[in-house]
Amino acid sequence: MTADTFSKGLWRENPVFVQVLGMCPVLAVTNTAINSMAMGLATLFVLVMSSTLVSLLRHLIPKQVRIASFILIIATFVTAVDYVIQAISVELHKALGAFISLIVVNCIILGRAEAFASKNGVLDAMKDALGMGLGFTFGLLCLGGVRELFGSGSLFGWHVLGPHFEPWVLMVLPPGGFFTLAGWLWLIELRKGRAT
């Protein structure tokens, strides 16, 4: 495997913009850049750690129980992340809500465990997970940044559009997630069209 193992998740196979995976947290928690960053980093940690452990144990896990074993491994790291976020900020933990626990069944993580980590060595599994996790975090930040900027005039809680800016309340509501994702997908397709 080459550096491509890492870089494919950042752009060419980006989980949010290309594979359109993990839409539940993508649409639900991206109303602010801070929530987006926290969910992205939590998913990144779980993805890297679970892929590493799945790759290490791939020859020891019987095929009959591999999915159940993968879910158990993932759930262990999700529980750790849940407690860490709660210890750092109760407010952030409340903002992310049940979506932290739903990382266990996030198709990106289980898919990478099944499709890549269980079939490759530890270093390649870590590179793949790191690339996919950073790509997912990038996707969340793209949505969260736009939604927070237009929805409240701020970015990471800092007011940047001035006191005369009239917030587009729709952007911080659930429909804003759909509109923002559609806009990003449209821009990416335009870019692809120009590249070919």
How does this structure look, described?
The protein has 196 residues and is mainly alpha-helical. The chain has one domain (7-195). Helices cover 65% and strands 2% of the residues. The chain has eight helices and two strands. A two-stranded antiparallel ribbon has the order 1-2. A hairpin with a 2-residue loop joins strand 1 (154-155) and strand 2. Helix 3 (33-57) runs parallel beside helix 6 and helix 7 (122-152) packs across helix 8 (174-195). It is globular. The mean pLDDT is 93.
Question: What are the main properties of this structure?
Answer:
single chain, mainly alpha, two-stranded antiparallel sheet, 8 helices
Write the layout of secondary structure elements.
Blueprint: H1 4-7, H2 23-28, H3 33-57, H4 66-88, H5 90-96, H6 107-115, H7 122-152, E1 154-155, E2 158-159, H8 174-195
Antiparallel strand pairs: 1-2
Range of helix content: 55-70%
Distance between the termini: 26 Å
User: Could you spell the SSE succession in H and E letters?
Assistant: HHHHHHHEEH
Count of the separate structural domains = 1
Task: Explain briefly what this protein structure is.
The chain has about 200 residues and is mostly helical. It has helices at about 5, 25-30, 35-55, 65-90, 90-95, 105-115, 120-150, 175-195, and strands spanning about 155, 160.
